[in-house]
């Protein structure tokens, strides 16, 4: 049990450094684009991001998780999987080129067509490093993974800034070029970094990889329906309410997900390969899962509850008055953010146990519920109703997820509540301080900058001090 904790903490240390740098750059990129783009253009960014997510799932084919979960893969099998990824990348590129007019017509946005074709280029290059990335993850080489991702993100961000301010190109096109450079460079660097340990040979033995496909097909289908469930809001809003409404929604979605769901992989990415090594010890898995949940809660709760406290300042201060309509949607979606943080670790346990089929059927059920609720909600043409529908189904998904883990690893409700209660109370107290202080600062300074800085600073320090004091009193160890 202590071994799982130490491996999670060690991997998380290296992953957190790179994630911090990447998150800060992405927030900076996001703020810059939000100030330069119209709501319609920001909606197009959301749509292009969604397309990229789905295309990546098909290129990966669920084989990455199979490589991590099955430690006995031979060099022949790995080479076969490598060439399958390359071929799939070529097919996805050709498909996106051919389907771009159909996708653009679906969203009634002709400008998407050329941008989808440009985006497809990345799938010719990125797959070269996909197998190496998962092998490094399996080997717990998180320091090396972090360096690759940090270098690639810095290069991509620099290219974005350079093209935005040194050329007259459309900001959406600039964003697409930055994404092509990001994924392509990552693929190349992953491949180069793992060459000393493994080099693919010219082998394509499909029969020898049957066990990977049997695991991978469920992981593929599970990820497909999971991502469809996560992005069906984008697909339906873009189609039925319009690209401008999607722009508002995408802004809110990014504000909630960039800082928080970038923090989740610090833990969950490390946890899957660690859990997979101890997959038959349910007690160790439960302890590791609770430890992972504790870390996520300590970091995520103050961020999200604090964001709620200053949400009416964040939008106008960082993105401008033109985005004011997004404030009530942001406040609702913070609930979704909290639930997604808590649901995210489930997949690490399910896959570590080798139950990719359960993940698929679970995600399929969630997709049906999300799809039905959101399809009804978009008919109202009101984004707030769409957001509340998302909250309702997320609550049901969260409750069901806890019940599933109780059956799989014997997760105790009392233990689960115990690790969440104190972080939630401390985050609530510090966020309450921010809320009260914000109103005082507005009346004193009548300035958005100071009204934002002081509450964030004071509430953040308050949260850290409370954690420190409780640790000294050994209360934190008791309740967390």
From TrEMBL:
Keyword terms, alphabetized: Cell membrane, Membrane, Transmembrane, Transmembrane helix
Membrane topology: Multi-pass membrane protein
InterPro entries membership: Poly_Biosynth_Transport
Superkingdom assignment: Bacteria
Transmembrane domains' residue ranges: 12-32, 44-68, 80-104, 116-136, 148-166, 172-192, 289-310, 322-339, 360-379, 385-405, 417-437, 449-470
Principal location listed in the UniProt entry: membrane
Pfam families named in the record: Polysacc_synt_3
Keyword Membrane tagged: yes
Cell compartment(s), UniProt: Cell membrane
Gene Ontology cellular component annotations, sorted alphabetically: plasma membrane
PANTHER family linked to this entry: LIPOPOLYSACCHARIDE BIOSYNTHESIS PROTEIN WZXC, PST FAMILY PREDICTED COLANIC ACID TRANSPORTER
Family: Belongs to the polysaccharide synthase family.
Name recorded for this polypeptide: MOP flippase family protein
